[in-house]
Amino acid sequence: MFGSKTLSKHAGLMGRMAETLDVDLGKAIQTGAMSPESYRASVMRCTKCSDPEACADWLDENSQSTATPDYCRNAAMLEALKP
User: Fold this and answer.
1) Apex CA 65: angle with CA 38 and CA 59, to 5°?
2) 17-46: per-residue pLDDT in tens?
3) pTM score > 0.90 for this model?
4) What is d(CA 59, CA 31) in angstroms, rounded to the nearest whole number?
5) Contacts for 15-19 with beta carbons within 8 Å, 24 or more apart?
């Protein structure tokens, strides 16, 4: 089981990745495009990333993008939610 620090870190990374792709996760949940359970599953998928530091570095270098890095475990979900 993961601690709250790990979950918080990965929820933050996932939120930043969504913002970089212009995906509003809050709105997606509010409109039903994404369920709260799917959001939690996405955060858990993110915790399995083999290199979250590389993700953080990529996010620091890319304030906007049309695609996630190849290694993103939530690429398909984020792509499906893009406007």
Assistant:
1) 75
2) 999 999 999 999 999 999 999 999 999 999
3) yes
4) 26
5) 16/59, 17/55, 17/59, 17/68, 17/72, 17/74, 17/78, 18/78, 18/81
